[in-house]
Amino acid sequence: MRSFKASLSIIIIVPAFAVIVSCTPGSCFEETDALVKAYFYLDETGESRSPDSLTIFGVGMDTSRIYNRSAKVQPALLPLNADAISCSFVIRLNGIDDTLQFRYLSYPHLVSIDCGYTFYHQMEDNLTYTNNIIDTVIIKNKSITTLDVENIRIYY
Predict the structure, then answer these.
(1) How far is CA 22 from the centre of its chain?
(2) Does residue 22 surpass a pLDDT of 70?
(3) Secondary structure of 98-138 as H, E, C letters
(4) DSSP SS3 for 40
(5) Residue 29 dihedral angles phi and psi, to the nearest 5°
(6) How far from 36 is each of 52, 66, 114, 146, 154, CA to CA, in Å?
(7) How far apart are CA 69 and CA 101, in angstroms?
(8) Which among 17, 21, 91, 151 has most CB atoms closer than 10 A?
(9) Does residue 133 carry a pLDDT above 70?
(10) Which of 77, 107, 106, 110 is nearest to 91 (CA)?
(11) pTM
(12) For every residue of the chain, which 3-state class applies, written as one string?
């Protein structure tokens, strides 16, 4: 009789433990942030080249820097605000500031059951920027997703 109770206890406890353990957070191993992937190119030669020094922060948010005098950044990853339709950044390349503004539409996207939802963005054509060091910005892919795809090219 004792072995029957022990077996019954094991039959109940082991599946219950498996259910509890399988629902623990941290089981998402997929990328969940949809970021603008900005690659840098030399204007004179057209070759891919990261700037010697890169600082990026949101306009009016210079205390929250995405990059701070970073070297060898290729690509720069820029977050967009899903609650807004535009986002502006100050991009300091080799000590010279320019401003880059994106206009976009955001929509929810299911990454997976484990990871939940994230927001993807669809960039509009009217990208604006200043020309202090940046010569040209070209949109290569308007869809801003979690995939590792070049979205814009910044020629400086």
Answers:
(1) 28
(2) no
(3) EEEEEEEEEEEEEEECCCEEEEEEEECCCCEECCCCCCEEE
(4) strand
(5) -115, 10
(6) 21, 13, 24, 9, 12
(7) 21
(8) 91
(9) yes
(10) 77
(11) 0.79
(12) CHHHHHHHHHHHHHHHHHHHHHCCCCCCCCCCCCEEEEEEECCCCCCECCCCCEEEEECCCCCCEEEEEECCCCCEEEECCCCCCEEEEEEEECCEEEEEEEEEEEEEEEEECCCEEEEEEEECCCCEECCCCCCEEEECCCEECCCCCCCEEEEC
Single-letter amino acid code for the residue at 121: H
CA dihedral sign of residues 37, 42, 47, 53: negative
Placement of tokens 């259910």 in the chain: 19
Question: Token pair 């004179």 is at which residue?
Answer: 44
Q: What is the pLDDT of residues 76-109, one digit of tens each?
A: 999 999 999 999 999 999 999 999 999 999 999 9
Q: Is 67 helix (H, G, I), strand (E, B) or coil?
A: strand
Parse the chain into domains and list their residue ranges.
28-155
